[in-house]
Amino acid sequence: MFCVASVATGAALFWLSDNPFLLSFRTGAALIVLGLCGCATVALIVIMRSRHLVLKGLGAIILSIAVGLAIAGLILLHRNRLLWPSKLSIQDWETDAKYLTDLIPRAHPNAFANLSPRVFRDQAAEAQAQIPSRSEAEVEMSLVRLVASIQDGHSTLFPFQPAAGFRMLPLQIYLFSDGWYITDSSPKYRNVVGKHLLRLGAKRIEEAFAIVHPFVGADNESTVQDRAPLYLLCPEVLQALGIVSGANVVRLTIADESGNLSEVDVRPTSLIRYLYWYFEPLQQWKRKPPQSASPLYRQYTWDNYWFRYLEEGRTVYVAFNQVRDKSDESFERFGDRVLQYCKARGAERLIIDIRNNDGGDNTIFGDFIQKLRNHPMNARGKLYVIIGRHTFSAAVNFTSAMESETNAIFVGEPAGAGPNHYGDPKKYVLPFSRLWVFIASRYHQWGQPQDRRRAHEPSITVPVSHVDYFANRDPVLAAILSQPTK
Q: Domains in the chain: how many in total?
């Protein structure tokens, strides 16, 4: 009973807390593990002492499941260099560098679409030659830059992954129209949220951004702005690139709304804890507080798609957050429901918001767009699509299809790629470092062959300031609602 109570109590605490920095979250996880270990121990005792075959069989099943999960976990940890990590030799890194240099042109459909082969070979040779004189973090970052040099957002070697052993500062930052601001933090650094970030170590934030820029795999500047915050919050990356002198403490210079300057020393946290906090993978199953105070684009971001009727301008607002079918309703059926609702309510405006959409399955939206093409909402001034720096991959392909097949007006920021780009990345693992590398495997042509745009640009560009963000305002949606309907 104790084991069951431990698991139940732990599960309850885990469900109530989605913040891995809180004691309740850690206690819940610990109680779940403790309870499962206790169940395995009880199962073993039952097998050894019980005379009933049914109980022995049940105990054997429970024990087998526990042992299987433990073995799978150990294998996973070992394969990703999380268990018994060892320092790699110069020869190991040289082998990985050569493997990567050969892999990129072999695996990518056209690795030199935006980079000359000679420049690539020179960069690869330089990275290889400097391995003996560099730290492991510096070697890794040279490989990160090599992949990023082909300027393809689907071809990446992210430095913040389990095998790297890197950590993260427990903050979230964002580049607004009026500068870099801290948007969230762990409870320990809550006083810095909302502050203007001016310096990382001795470097101005603009200098630090310029330094990490070549290491960010991207099709265009929008994706760089979307991904760069993670690079700027990784202390090992900052140290390897000479932005800070040490990785155990990073000093930030911040300013409040009155311009008063202050400094704060931030200590990093584990990568696993940070990524759980950042991506909130279990958010939809957690107890969440009401989100009515947040603007629509920040509500229910885990839900692939949903819609709401806005009385202002008789508007139907669709949040399209992932290009993936839901288990209880396909996107095709959802689209039918949206179009029927628009007709039944006599809607005058349809807004499809894909600011939070970084892709998915290209095959699920074709029927919806064809039906929308013949729908009364497909009229200039009635149909809008909101795009942004996080709009990527299949969401960009959705944007391309909407551009070519409908009369949609695009609003917001430039998207993460243009109509024709490389996608469908495949994962490769470097032999010794066990770093994951993603290389695009397919050319997506959703525009005319001669279309060289690297980004979908909005017809109406709307900047978002930190004041808008912290006041829970959405100037992009407001800009659309201020447009006259036809």
A: 4
Residue 71 CB contacts under 8 Å (≥ 6 apart), including other chains:
none
Query: How many percent of the chain have pLDDT more than 70?
Result: 91
CA atoms within 13 A on the CB side of 373: 12
Q: Look at residue 41 in the predicted model and tell me its pLDDT.
A: 74
Mean confidence (pLDDT) of the chain: 92
Q: pLDDT at position 103, please?
A: 98
pLDDT value at residue 471: 97
Share of the chain above pLDDT 90, in %: 78
In one-letter notation, the amino acid at residue 59 is G
Contacts for 344 with CB less than 8 Å, ≥ 6 apart: none
DSSP 389-420: TT--THHHHHHHHHHHHS--EEEES--SS-SE
Q: Tell me, what DSSP letter sits at residue 156?
A: B
**Domain co-membership, 173 together with 235:** yes
Sequential DSSP letters for 8-68: HHHHHHHHH---TTSHHHHHHHHHHHHHHHHHHHHHHHHHHH---HHHHHHHHHHHHHHHH
**Per-residue pLDDT for 314 more than 90?**
yes
- What tens digit of pLDDT does each residue of 47-76 get? 677 666 666 666 667 667 766 766 776 666
Q: What is the pTM of this model?
A: 0.92
- Parent domain of 345: 283-418+453-481
- Separation between Cα atoms, residue 117 and residue 150, nearest integer Å: 10
- The Cα 468–Cα 473 span in angstroms is 5
Claim to verify: residue 335 and residue 196 sit in the same structural domain: no
Opening angle at CA 458, ends 311 and 401, nearest 5: 85
Query: Residue 201 region, left (φ>0) first, then alpha (ψ -120 to 50), else beta?
Result: left
pLDDT tens per residue across span 120-141: 999 999 999 999 999 999 999 9
Render pLDDT for 219-248 as a digit per residue (tens, 0 to 9): 999 999 999 999 999 999 999 999 999 999
Q: Could you give the 3-state DSSP secondary structure of residue 120?
A: helix
Any domain includes 37: yes
Q: Find the CATH number of the domain harbouring 381.
A: 3.90.226.10
Nearest to 390 by CA among 468, 481, 455: 455
Cβ atoms of residues 41 and 61 within 8 Å: no
CA distances from 370 to 397, 429, 466 (A): 15, 40, 38
Are both 211 and 311 inside the same structural domain? no
Report the pLDDT value the prediction gives residue 85, as an integer from 0 to 100.
59
CB 235 within 8 A of CB 169: yes
Where do we find the tokens 């991959």?
393
